[in-house]
Records
---
Amino acid sequence: MVLLRCCASLMVFLTIVGIWLGLGAWLWITKNAFVSTSQDYKYCLYGSYAVWGLDGLYTIIVLCLCNRIRLGVVIMKCTAQFIGSTPQVFLVPIIFSILCGIWVAAWGFTAIYLFSIGDIQPRPAPLEFVTEVIWVPQTRYLCLYHLFGLLWVNAFLIGSA
């Protein structure tokens, strides 16, 4: 957290410059691996020009959003300071992951029970040795209701974190 607090602006601006230089320079350097008359050489050459054209647009966007980028850096520093002073916030995702795991295990147990409700009958001719469970429509609706219950309670647990 100390590294993030001290070097957040440097990391953000190095990332911006890395994106700005990365692909265009890679294409420009890669074109030298091909013969100058080959189609791949032209693809790399014109591709680097196209990427550098997009980099010009990227530069304009970065310059227009410079204040927002600085605000983001300040928020990152503030977040690093908060996490450094209250490290117990790392326990929140762990605790709620355990709670979600318990919920999914309980749901799976009841889902297996619901799935097994019905008449067990053999399948048609080629797979007579494999049986299937024949449901009534109410059982199918109950299984769908149970599935949406899983999703709803899971979203509730994640949202309460």
Note: The CA atoms of residues 5 and 77 lie 5 Å apart.
---
Amino acid sequence: MKHETAGDPISGLKWTRRATEKIAKELKSLGIEVSRTTVARLLKELKYSLKVNHKKRSSGSPADRNEQFEYIAEQRQRFARRGAPILSIDSKKKEMVGNFKNAGRAWNRDPVLVNDHDFRSHAKGMATPYGVYDVQENLASVFVGVSYDTPEFAADSIERWWRGEGRKRYPGSKHLLLLADGGGSNGYRCRAWKLGLQEKLCDRHGLTVSVSHYPTGTSKWNPIEHRLFSQISKNWEGKPLNSYETILKYIRTTRTTTGLRVRSSLVRKEYEKGVKISDDQMAQLRIKNHATQPLRNYTLRPRQNWK
């Protein structure tokens, strides 16, 4: 057991990675007949206990992480002074639609009975929520897709927000800032994402769009994660998401004491995965990378008057 044991230096509690049945077999080979339940009891007496993996070891911070955080702060201050929209965007975890167990607890006289297995084949469909959170106004819109989480879906969601809310809330504003994670459907390396912004926001609405991406592994700092998505999860915890209308209802009724209000709508459009964007299409983008971390920070402008 010497090389199979770890322990807490404060409490003296120990744990081993060997199963009790294997320990019993090894003891038997030494002439000691003992059952695995007896092994478990003896381990507890010796202050061993079952342990799970803990994510505690840091892989370290990239050298440019702090620089990007400072640049994002500067960008937010600049846009706030001008009264221009600042949007925190991201995809929320996909949800199976049906009578499935949902994490958390809810007040009920009796427990809600749900399916004993979460088989994808038993689902009515998949819900793919994409959030657009207005940082300055503490207002949000969540577009629930029935298809895939693609760059086109992400760009369409922001365009829907601008067409339905943004241009009314920010009349006369032609420049907006997007705060996004580094990967996923709105990742900084994603060609289709940049093309979608160019065509659907810049060219269609004459908008100038600046994008700043959070460094890898820092998505929890993106405001939408803790100001919107966590609140939605709290609102529907312990309640099965048995229909798309149920999902939309829980999103719409999400509230906080700081004044958060949320709109939601269903997007029935089918999106295709794996769309390839050619070098020629990328060459036609009117995009300018910023001097600070140019891969993570860039601005797209309308192409109508581009010379």
Note: The chain has two domains: 2-45, 65-300.
